[in-house]
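Shipment paperwork, digital attachment
Item: protein structure file
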Amino acid sequence: MFQLLCCQDKELRQKIQDFIINDLTRINEKAKNHKVNKFIRNKCCDNLLNPNVKAARKTLNIMILLFKKRIWNDDKTVNAIAQGCYSQDSKIAYATGKFFLSEYQEVEEESENNEINDLQHKYKLLGKGQNKKTKKRKEKIKTLIKAVERKEKRKSKEKENKDFMPIDLLNDPSNLCDKIFNRIKNIKNRKHFNLKIVLLRLIGRIAGRHKIIVNNFFNFCASLIRPRQEMLSTILASVVEAVHHMVSTVDIEPVLNELFYHFVSESYSADIITIGVNTLREII
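Attachment content:
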Protein backbone atom coordinates (compact mmCIF):
# COMPACT_ATOMS: atom_id res chain seq x y z
CA MET A 1 0.00 0.00 0.00
CA PHE A 2 2.79 2.43 0.91
CA GLN A 3 4.40 1.71 -2.48
CA LEU A 4 1.30 3.22 -4.11
CA LEU A 5 2.15 6.56 -2.45
CA CYS A 6 5.06 6.76 -4.92
CA CYS A 7 2.76 6.73 -7.95
CA GLN A 8 2.31 9.77 -10.21
CA ASP A 9 -1.49 9.80 -9.86
CA LYS A 10 -2.28 12.61 -7.40
CA GLU A 11 -5.86 11.43 -6.76
CA LEU A 12 -4.73 7.88 -6.01
CA ARG A 13 -2.14 9.11 -3.51
CA GLN A 14 -4.84 11.16 -1.77
CA LYS A 15 -7.20 8.15 -1.68
CA ILE A 16 -4.46 5.98 -0.13
CA GLN A 17 -3.80 8.67 2.51
CA ASP A 18 -7.51 8.98 3.36
CA PHE A 19 -7.92 5.19 3.44
CA ILE A 20 -5.06 4.71 5.92
CA ILE A 21 -6.30 7.50 8.21
CA ASN A 22 -9.95 6.37 8.14
CA ASP A 23 -9.04 2.72 8.61
CA LEU A 24 -6.79 3.41 11.61
CA THR A 25 -9.44 5.72 13.10
CA ARG A 26 -11.99 2.91 12.84
CA ILE A 27 -9.62 0.27 14.26
CA ASN A 28 -8.78 2.47 17.27
CA GLU A 29 -12.33 3.72 17.84
CA LYS A 30 -13.08 1.69 20.98
CA ALA A 31 -9.55 0.96 22.18
CA LYS A 32 -6.07 1.43 20.76
CA ASN A 33 -4.85 -1.52 18.73
CA HIS A 34 -1.16 -1.38 19.63
CA LYS A 35 -0.12 -4.23 17.33
CA VAL A 36 -1.58 -2.62 14.19
CA ASN A 37 -0.45 0.86 15.23
CA LYS A 38 3.12 -0.31 15.75
CA PHE A 39 3.25 -2.07 12.37
CA ILE A 40 1.81 0.85 10.36
CA ARG A 41 3.83 3.45 12.25
CA ASN A 42 7.09 1.61 11.54
CA LYS A 43 6.14 1.60 7.85
CA CYS A 44 5.48 5.36 8.05
CA CYS A 45 8.81 6.03 9.78
CA ASP A 46 10.64 4.17 7.00
CA ASN A 47 8.63 5.94 4.30
CA LEU A 48 9.44 9.40 5.71
CA LEU A 49 12.98 8.83 4.46
CA ASN A 50 11.72 7.79 1.02
CA PRO A 51 13.70 9.55 -1.76
CA ASN A 52 10.37 9.98 -3.55
CA VAL A 53 9.27 13.32 -2.02
CA LYS A 54 5.62 12.79 -2.99
CA ALA A 55 5.45 9.61 -0.95
CA ALA A 56 7.34 11.23 1.95
CA ARG A 57 4.94 14.22 1.97
CA LYS A 58 1.86 12.00 2.08
CA THR A 59 3.41 9.91 4.85
CA LEU A 60 4.08 13.07 6.87
CA ASN A 61 0.44 14.12 6.38
CA ILE A 62 -0.73 10.74 7.66
CA MET A 63 1.38 10.94 10.83
CA ILE A 64 0.41 14.54 11.61
CA LEU A 65 -3.31 13.93 11.07
CA LEU A 66 -3.22 10.79 13.23
CA PHE A 67 -1.46 12.79 15.95
CA LYS A 68 -4.19 15.45 15.78
CA LYS A 69 -6.81 12.71 16.07
CA ARG A 70 -4.92 11.52 19.20
CA ILE A 71 -4.47 8.05 17.75
CA TRP A 72 -0.68 8.32 17.47
CA ASN A 73 0.07 10.96 20.11
CA ASP A 74 3.15 9.40 21.69
CA ASP A 75 6.84 10.33 21.73
CA LYS A 76 7.82 7.89 18.97
CA THR A 77 5.45 9.56 16.51
CA VAL A 78 6.58 13.06 17.50
CA ASN A 79 10.27 12.22 17.17
CA ALA A 80 9.67 10.55 13.80
CA ILE A 81 7.84 13.66 12.54
CA ALA A 82 10.70 15.84 13.86
CA GLN A 83 13.03 14.33 11.25
CA GLY A 84 11.15 16.36 8.65
CA CYS A 85 12.55 19.63 10.08
CA TYR A 86 15.90 19.11 8.37
CA SER A 87 14.56 17.45 5.24
CA GLN A 88 16.00 18.79 1.98
CA ASP A 89 12.45 19.05 0.65
CA SER A 90 11.29 22.55 1.65
CA LYS A 91 7.59 21.58 1.81
CA ILE A 92 8.26 18.76 4.26
CA ALA A 93 10.46 20.98 6.45
CA TYR A 94 7.87 23.79 6.40
CA ALA A 95 4.93 21.49 7.23
CA THR A 96 6.90 19.91 10.09
CA GLY A 97 7.83 23.32 11.51
CA LYS A 98 4.22 24.48 11.39
CA PHE A 99 3.11 21.27 13.11
CA PHE A 100 5.40 21.86 16.09
CA LEU A 101 4.38 25.52 16.33
CA SER A 102 0.63 24.81 16.35
CA GLU A 103 -1.30 24.97 19.64
CA TYR A 104 -4.27 22.72 19.13
CA GLN A 105 -6.06 23.53 22.40
CA GLU A 106 -6.25 27.22 21.53
CA VAL A 107 -7.64 26.48 18.06
CA GLU A 108 -10.44 24.39 19.61
CA GLU A 109 -11.23 27.11 22.10
CA GLU A 110 -11.42 29.69 19.31
CA SER A 111 -14.13 27.68 17.52
CA GLU A 112 -16.02 27.39 20.79
CA ASN A 113 -15.80 31.17 21.27
CA ASN A 114 -17.11 31.75 17.74
CA GLU A 115 -20.10 29.53 18.48
CA ILE A 116 -20.90 31.50 21.64
CA ASN A 117 -20.46 34.79 19.76
CA ASP A 118 -22.91 33.61 17.08
CA LEU A 119 -25.51 32.83 19.72
CA GLN A 120 -25.01 36.20 21.36
CA HIS A 121 -25.34 37.91 17.98
CA LYS A 122 -28.65 36.13 17.34
CA TYR A 123 -29.86 37.26 20.75
CA LYS A 124 -29.04 40.88 19.90
CA LEU A 125 -30.89 40.62 16.59
CA LEU A 126 -33.95 39.24 18.30
CA GLY A 127 -33.83 41.94 20.97
CA LYS A 128 -33.48 44.85 18.51
CA GLY A 129 -36.05 46.54 16.32
CA GLN A 130 -39.50 47.96 16.82
CA ASN A 131 -41.23 44.61 16.65
CA LYS A 132 -43.30 43.76 19.64
CA LYS A 133 -41.82 41.16 21.97
CA THR A 134 -44.44 38.49 21.38
CA LYS A 135 -44.60 35.31 23.42
CA LYS A 136 -42.84 33.37 20.63
CA ARG A 137 -40.05 35.95 20.41
CA LYS A 138 -39.58 35.92 24.20
CA GLU A 139 -39.30 32.13 24.16
CA LYS A 140 -36.59 32.30 21.46
CA ILE A 141 -34.62 34.87 23.46
CA LYS A 142 -34.95 32.75 26.59
CA THR A 143 -33.71 29.64 24.75
CA LEU A 144 -30.69 31.51 23.34
CA ILE A 145 -29.75 32.90 26.76
CA LYS A 146 -29.84 29.39 28.23
CA ALA A 147 -27.73 28.04 25.35
CA VAL A 148 -25.07 30.73 25.88
CA GLU A 149 -25.01 30.16 29.65
CA ARG A 150 -24.77 26.38 29.17
CA LYS A 151 -21.85 26.64 26.74
CA GLU A 152 -19.97 29.18 28.87
CA LYS A 153 -20.48 27.02 31.97
CA ARG A 154 -19.21 23.91 30.16
CA LYS A 155 -16.22 25.84 28.84
CA SER A 156 -15.28 27.05 32.35
CA LYS A 157 -15.37 23.46 33.62
CA GLU A 158 -13.19 22.07 30.83
CA LYS A 159 -9.70 21.16 31.92
CA GLU A 160 -7.32 23.33 29.92
CA ASN A 161 -4.17 21.77 28.54
CA LYS A 162 -2.37 24.78 27.10
CA ASP A 163 0.92 23.70 28.67
CA PHE A 164 1.15 20.58 26.51
CA MET A 165 2.79 20.79 23.09
CA PRO A 166 4.34 18.16 20.79
CA ILE A 167 7.80 19.64 21.51
CA ASP A 168 7.47 18.38 25.11
CA LEU A 169 7.86 14.83 23.76
CA LEU A 170 11.16 15.43 21.94
CA ASN A 171 13.89 13.03 23.09
CA ASP A 172 16.92 15.14 22.17
CA PRO A 173 15.83 18.78 21.70
CA SER A 174 19.40 20.12 21.78
CA ASN A 175 20.57 17.91 18.91
CA LEU A 176 17.39 18.68 16.96
CA CYS A 177 17.94 22.44 17.33
CA ASP A 178 21.52 22.11 16.09
CA LYS A 179 20.37 20.20 13.00
CA ILE A 180 17.58 22.69 12.28
CA PHE A 181 20.00 25.60 12.71
CA ASN A 182 22.40 24.03 10.20
CA ARG A 183 19.43 23.62 7.85
CA ILE A 184 18.61 27.33 8.22
CA LYS A 185 22.18 28.44 7.51
CA ASN A 186 22.13 26.46 4.26
CA ILE A 187 18.97 28.21 3.02
CA LYS A 188 20.27 30.73 0.48
CA ASN A 189 17.30 30.93 -1.88
CA ARG A 190 15.10 33.98 -1.31
CA LYS A 191 11.92 32.04 -2.13
CA HIS A 192 12.54 29.85 0.95
CA PHE A 193 12.60 32.85 3.32
CA ASN A 194 9.28 31.80 4.94
CA LEU A 195 10.76 28.37 5.69
CA LYS A 196 13.80 30.01 7.30
CA ILE A 197 11.58 32.12 9.59
CA VAL A 198 9.33 29.18 10.56
CA LEU A 199 12.36 27.07 11.52
CA LEU A 200 13.89 30.04 13.35
CA ARG A 201 10.70 30.42 15.38
CA LEU A 202 10.72 26.69 16.10
CA ILE A 203 14.28 26.84 17.48
CA GLY A 204 13.26 29.73 19.74
CA ARG A 205 10.23 27.76 20.97
CA ILE A 206 12.22 24.59 21.67
CA ALA A 207 15.13 26.46 23.28
CA GLY A 208 12.84 28.33 25.66
CA ARG A 209 10.71 25.30 26.42
CA HIS A 210 13.61 22.93 27.16
CA LYS A 211 16.01 25.60 28.55
CA ILE A 212 18.79 24.93 26.09
CA ILE A 213 21.31 27.22 24.37
CA VAL A 214 21.93 27.01 20.62
CA ASN A 215 25.38 28.32 19.68
CA ASN A 216 25.32 31.53 17.60
CA PHE A 217 21.51 31.57 17.49
CA PHE A 218 21.24 35.12 18.87
CA ASN A 219 24.07 36.31 16.60
CA PHE A 220 22.16 34.96 13.61
CA CYS A 221 18.92 36.62 14.75
CA ALA A 222 20.75 39.91 15.32
CA SER A 223 21.77 39.99 11.65
CA LEU A 224 18.07 39.90 10.68
CA ILE A 225 16.82 42.58 13.08
CA ARG A 226 16.17 45.67 10.95
CA PRO A 227 13.19 48.08 11.01
CA ARG A 228 12.15 47.20 7.45
CA GLN A 229 12.83 43.49 7.75
CA GLU A 230 10.09 41.23 6.43
CA MET A 231 8.34 39.22 9.21
CA LEU A 232 10.19 41.25 11.84
CA SER A 233 7.64 40.47 14.57
CA THR A 234 8.17 36.71 14.11
CA ILE A 235 11.96 37.11 14.29
CA LEU A 236 11.70 39.16 17.50
CA ALA A 237 9.25 36.61 18.94
CA SER A 238 11.81 33.86 18.22
CA VAL A 239 14.43 35.78 20.21
CA VAL A 240 12.11 36.48 23.13
CA GLU A 241 11.01 32.83 23.35
CA ALA A 242 14.60 31.59 23.25
CA VAL A 243 15.63 33.71 26.26
CA HIS A 244 15.62 31.95 29.64
CA HIS A 245 17.51 32.15 32.94
CA MET A 246 20.50 30.17 31.61
CA VAL A 247 21.16 32.58 28.73
CA SER A 248 24.09 34.86 29.58
CA THR A 249 24.32 38.59 28.87
CA VAL A 250 27.16 37.89 26.43
CA ASP A 251 24.89 35.58 24.38
CA ILE A 252 22.07 38.11 24.08
CA GLU A 253 24.31 41.20 23.70
CA PRO A 254 24.32 41.22 19.84
CA VAL A 255 20.51 41.39 19.84
CA LEU A 256 20.46 44.18 22.43
CA ASN A 257 23.00 46.19 20.44
CA GLU A 258 20.92 45.89 17.25
CA LEU A 259 17.74 46.93 19.09
CA PHE A 260 19.43 50.02 20.55
CA TYR A 261 21.11 50.95 17.27
CA HIS A 262 18.20 50.35 14.86
CA PHE A 263 15.15 50.96 17.05
CA VAL A 264 15.66 52.87 20.32
CA SER A 265 16.78 56.21 18.93
CA GLU A 266 15.19 59.64 18.53
CA SER A 267 15.89 59.55 14.80
CA TYR A 268 13.26 56.83 14.29
CA SER A 269 9.46 57.02 14.29
CA ALA A 270 7.39 56.37 17.42
CA ASP A 271 6.20 52.99 16.04
CA ILE A 272 9.76 51.74 15.52
CA ILE A 273 10.84 52.93 18.98
CA THR A 274 7.83 51.18 20.53
CA ILE A 275 8.77 47.88 18.88
CA GLY A 276 12.34 48.17 20.19
CA VAL A 277 11.35 49.13 23.74
CA ASN A 278 8.69 46.39 23.98
CA THR A 279 11.15 43.75 22.75
CA LEU A 280 13.80 44.89 25.26
CA ARG A 281 11.23 44.74 28.04
CA GLU A 282 10.19 41.19 27.08
CA ILE A 283 13.83 40.05 26.96
CA ILE A 284 14.54 41.53 30.38
